[in-house]
User: Fold this.
Amino acid sequence: MHARRHLPFVAGALTAWVACGSPGAVGPPPETAGALDASPGTSRAPGSKEASATDLSERPEAWFDEVRWQQRLLVVTGPSDEVEAQLAALLEAEEVLLERDLLVINASEGVSRVVLGVRSDAPPSAALHARYDLEPGRFTIALVGLDGGVKERRRELFEPGDIARVIDAMPMRQSELRGR
Assistant:
């Protein structure tokens, strides 16, 4: 099994941040602000090759190319009450989701942010909506495979156990499990 560098988010602090909604905020919740040790104006974790916020807004395709074959994505968007409920459920299953190389992104309210995963940057919400055909304002969850294609789309809460089962049934995940 390969070593993973997990963001130092504290689940309790992140849950509190998700519950308060913090519209318009960029980056991790204030309780974890010092944890990333990023340079001002960036969302870069120490030692990472992640793009700066400027690069992401000007060239989101580079981000998509970077995560392809590295991370599965779960993009969540829609009204805040439904998004908050989904994110709270996902945070309860953090270990199970990280084990499957899942990057959870909240793409609601015009700002996108990584909620769970090994990266701290995400492309603009509009780029995620366009790439994965998400309707602004409508609750949608898109599960994106390592190849960059949408594997599952839900318009209702997606239980973490169901997410794990869908991922575990994917051919690339089966290959990963055989290789252990």
Summary: Residues 24 and 68 are 27 Å apart (CA to CA).
